[in-house]
Amino acid sequence: MVNKGNDTSVDTNVRKADDNGYSKSQTDLTKEFPDQIVAEKATGVNVTAIKTQDEMFGSLLDIKA
Questions:
Q1: Are 36 and 30 in contact (CB under 8 A)?
Q2: Per its UniProt record, what InterPro entries does this chain match (predicted)?
């Protein structure tokens, strides 16, 4: 896979199957696992921010009422 410095591009992988139809995965697990962990942490932080915003908005509505 060649990345030309543009992290937003989607690279395509071409896999060649052998005679039995089996093809090797081109996934680099040493890169994918840390990326998955970072994505999970980011999702957790976003959920926490939304919950905090919801609580603050609820408090504001309670004060105004």
A1: no
A2: Flg_bb/hook_C_dom (IPR010930)
pTM of the model: 0.53
CB distance 1 to 26 below 8 Å: yes
C-beta of residue 13 within 8 angstroms of C-beta of residue 26: yes
How is residue 9 written in tokens?
């591009």
Q: Where are the domains of the chain?
A: 28-64
What stretches of 1-65 adopt beta strand conformation (E)? none
The rounded distance, in Å, linking the Cα atoms of 24 and 49 is 41
- Output the six-digit token pair for 3: 């990345």
Q: How far apart are CA 15 and CA 57, in angstroms?
A: 51
pLDDT, tens only, 3-60? 455 555 556 666 666 666 667 778 888 999 999 999 999 999 999 999 999 999 999 9
Structure tokens at 11: 């690279």
